[in-house]
């Protein structure tokens, strides 16, 4: 169960300004039903550009409803320039905080407000899908690289998980996690050490001659496999390497340990796949 | 604490007082270790023997085909792990997209270790395609693991028919029957199932105890490695009080199972019918004709499940949801998505799951209190207003 503040629960159970304003001066709609939350903000704005009334309709969880309620309370009485300074953190603070995973609810409030004011001012609002400068990174939730970069900068985010909490990107199938990490790296201009290390390892996986492969197999057995087996009173001998087939023989305690035979073979194979080539198949020769 | 109308029995159940009474002596009086050489410890061994018989009786098995575990997840993990270790040359696993995470995540884990996993799909009612299943089993299929009944929708798979197919093809068949056992009768003597998982807390035993049925003659490699307990098939000191509790719960289930299920079914049917009548734009998820009699999974369009649950909580009603916000991820239930339930409906799904401890008054209370909650959230929602006009 989420640990919501009393204020979140209060605004969820007794939402302020719920509904839709007749003949509104500004409307901002954000999100959709498939994504799991959506907000329609409508406002009345007087000739001095002051927001005199605001109402919301929200599809979403308790914190989405509470964030929308808080947003309307925050904007009422402000001029549109003052309102534009409201950040999602202001919405979260107004509610005495939101669980980390729910920060995207407050981001939704901020975005609806920005959109409503932009439309009111007659600025062109381009849906991200139609902006060719942006690229959809998270296909599950339709989040673009620009939006991800924005939440990373504005909220000082450093992990893909944090990005997910703020804008949902990466929270679906997870295939874009690497892309999100790259964006974080670009934003902070950090050396992508991890990527380099991976590249270095991939180099090894280029087509290699049998001699190099055999050397790598021997090296991996020496450094990664034998020490572990010895610590359990066993040992391993390399018999032959034919293509991707590696034939080994297990000695000492290992060879007699029938029940762990399969695990052991898996362990050897896993290590060789990691350090030599992912197509390696290990065959155990019993003498 | 105010009175709670508990309709989340697929999550966990109330411990039956008779189960608790059976367990009590094993904390402060008969607390010995059955492996001990002294009488004080050794004599509790006979209580474990009795519990094993009670479990075996409930599912029509032999006592030596039962091992005790710590939970349903351990039983599921142990079954799959054993098949893979027993047949190391076989590198293929068949399961379904709608399994419990204890099977699904465990299988996924092996994809990085050189295994290929086939995830069978289901149709919009949650049914498997038996032809697809037949075609998926290959010579190197080590195990087919398919649940008996789904925890979210209650849909029952024809696992006996599936077991016969798998058997004929020469693979092992395991079924996660955690939601099935204690609700419907089983007879392993007439079955082709090789391994079957069950969990105590789904039918009025405490949390922390389960069992795995292993058909006599099935190769088995243990998951927990250590002492000689459970004839070397599951190491670790026997959790005597919980094992006794599980035995007692099995005994009670075998006595009550039929009358309970008749009564529970009539409660569930009245609840479901009433909710659908009182709430427009609602639908039941899952095959009506092959479903656990205690489960009702209803989607309320245009609103979100977490919000529904929190408002129900205010009324003292405990249920669960397949919405993204309650699943701990940002996507709604994998089961509902596999069934092709539209996201709009999956987000607003609520599962009511009953037990023999529910009453007619509970159903009346839920029928009175749920529809206003649905209407209130629909007023807040920007969607679905047109359909009311």
Report on the structure:
The complex is a heterodimer of chains A (287) and B (389). Chain A has 287 residues and is an alpha+beta fold. Chain A folds into three domains: 6-120, Sufe protein. Chain: A (Alpha-Beta Complex), CATH 3.90.1010; 128-190, BFD-like [2Fe-2S]-binding domain (Arc Repressor Mutant, subunit A), CATH 1.10.10; 210-284, 2-Layer Sandwich (GMP Synthetase, Chain A, domain 3), CATH 3.30.300.130. Chain A is built from twelve helices and eight strands. Chain A has helices at 6-13, 62-75, 80-84, 88-94, 103-120, 145-155, 160-167, 177-188, 193-204, 210-231, 253-256, 261-275; strands spanning 26-32, 37-45, 51-59, 136-138, 143-144, 234-242, 245-252, 281-284. In chain A, the strands form three sheets. A three-stranded antiparallel beta sheet of chain A has the order 1-2-3. Chain A has a three-stranded mixed beta sheet with strand order 6-7-8. A two-stranded antiparallel ribbon of chain A has the order 4-5. In chain A, β1 (26-32) and β2 form a beta hairpin. In chain A, α1 (6-13) packs across α2, α4 (88-94) packs across α5 and α5 packs across α7 (160-167). The mean pLDDT of chain A is 83. Chain B is an alpha/beta fold. Chain B folds into two domains: 5-11 and 257-384, Alpha-Beta Complex (Aspartate Aminotransferase, domain 1); 17-253, Aspartate Aminotransferase, domain 2, CATH 3.40.640. Chain B has 15 helices and 13 strands. Chain B has helices at residues 17-23, 25-28, 39-42, 45-59, 72-86, 101-111, 130-136, 159-169, 240-278, 305-314, 324-327, 334-338, 343-347, 360-380, 385-388, and strands at residues 5-6, 66-69, 92-96, 116-120, 141-145, 172-176, 195-199, 210-214, 282-284, 295-300, 317-318, 320-321, 349-353. Chain B has a seven-stranded mixed beta sheet, sandwiched between helices. In chain B, β5 (141-145), α8 and β6 form a beta-alpha-beta unit. At the A-B interface, α1, β2, β3, α2 and α12 of A face α5, α10 and α13 of B.
């Amino acid at each position: 169960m989420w640990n919501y503040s009393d204020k979140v629960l209060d605004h969820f159970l007794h939402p302020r300004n719920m509904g839709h304003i007749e003949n509104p001066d500004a409307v901002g709609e954000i999100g959709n039903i498939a994504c799991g939350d959506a907000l329609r903000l409508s406002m009345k704005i007087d000739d001095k550009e002051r927001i005199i009334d605001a109402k919301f309709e929200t599809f979403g969880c308790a914190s989405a409803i509470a964030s929308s309620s808080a947003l309307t309370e925050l904007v009422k009485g402000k001029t549109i320039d003052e309102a534009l300074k409201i950040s999602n953190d202001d919405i979260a603070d107004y509610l005495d905080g939101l669980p980390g995973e729910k920060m995207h609810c407050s981001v939704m409030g901020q975005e609806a407000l920005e959109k409503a004011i932009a439309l009111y001012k007659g600025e062109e609002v381009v849906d991200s899908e139609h902006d060719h400068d942006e690229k959809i990174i998270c296909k599950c939730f339709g989040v673009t690289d620009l939006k991800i970069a924005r939440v990373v900068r504005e909220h000082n985010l450093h992990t893909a998980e944090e990005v997910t909490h703020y804008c949902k990107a990466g929270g679906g199938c997870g295939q874009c996690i690497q892309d999100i990490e790259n964006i974080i790296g670009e934003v902070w201009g950090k050396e992508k050490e991890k990527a380099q290390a991976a590249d270095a390892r991939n180099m090894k996986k280029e087509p290699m001659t049998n001699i190099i492969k055999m050397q790598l197999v021997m090296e991996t057995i020496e450094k990664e496999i034998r020490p572990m087996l010895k610590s359990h009173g066993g040992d391993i001998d390399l018999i032959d390497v034919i293509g991707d087939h590696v034939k080994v023989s297990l000695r000492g305690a290992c060879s007699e340990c029938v029940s762990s035979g399969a695990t052991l073979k898996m362990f050897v194979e896993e290590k060789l796949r990691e350090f030599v080539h992912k197509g390696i198949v290990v065959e155990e020769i019993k003498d | 604490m105010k009175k709670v109308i508990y309709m989340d029995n697929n999550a966990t159940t109330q411990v039956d007082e008779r189960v608790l009474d059976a367990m009590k002596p094993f904390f402060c009086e008969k607390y010995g270790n059955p492996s001990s050489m002294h009488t004080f410890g050794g004599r509790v061994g006979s209580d474990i023997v009795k519990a094993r018989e009670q479990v075996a009786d409930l599912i029509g098995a032999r006592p030596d085909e039962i091992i005790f575990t710590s939970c349903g997840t351990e039983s599921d993990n142990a079954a799959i792990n054993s098949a893979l270790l027993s047949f190391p040359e076989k590198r293929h696993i068949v399961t379904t997209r709608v399994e419990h995470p204890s099977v699904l995540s465990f299988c996924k884990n092996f994809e990085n270790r050189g295994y290929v996993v086939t995830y069978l799909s289901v149709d919009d009612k949650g049914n498997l395609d038996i032809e697809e299943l037949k075609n998926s089993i290959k010579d190197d299929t080590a195990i087919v693991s398919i649940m008996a009944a789904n925890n979210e929708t209650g849909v029952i798979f024809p696992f006996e028919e599936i077991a016969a197919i798998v058997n004929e093809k020469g693979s092992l068949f395991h079924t996660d029957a955690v939601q099935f056992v204690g609700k419907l009768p089983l007879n392993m003597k007439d079955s082709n199932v090789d391994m079957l998982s069950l969990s105590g807390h789904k039918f009025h035993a405490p949390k922390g105890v389960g069992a795995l049925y292993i058909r006599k003659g099935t190769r088995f490699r243990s998951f927990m490695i250590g002492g000689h307990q459970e004839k070397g098939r599951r190491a670790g000191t026997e959790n005597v009080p919980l094992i006794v509790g599980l035995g007692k719960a099995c005994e009670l289930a075998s006595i009550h199972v039929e009358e309970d299920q008749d009564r529970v079914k009539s409660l569930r049917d009245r609840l479901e019918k009433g909710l659908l009548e009182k709430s427009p734009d609602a639908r039941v998820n899952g095959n009506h004709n092959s479903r656990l009699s205690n489960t009702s999974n209803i989607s309320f369009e245009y609103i979100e499940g977490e919000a529904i649950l929190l408002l129900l909580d205010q009324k003292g009603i405990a249920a669960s949801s397949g919405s993204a916000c309650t699943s701990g991820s940002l996507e709604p239930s994998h089961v509902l998505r596999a069934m092709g339930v539209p996201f709009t409906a999956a987000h607003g799904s609520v599962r009511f799951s009953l037990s023999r401890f529910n009453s007619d008054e509970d159903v009346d209370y839920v029928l009175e209190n749920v529809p206003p909650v649905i209407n209130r959230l629909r007023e807040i929602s920007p969607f679905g207003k047109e359909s009311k006009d």
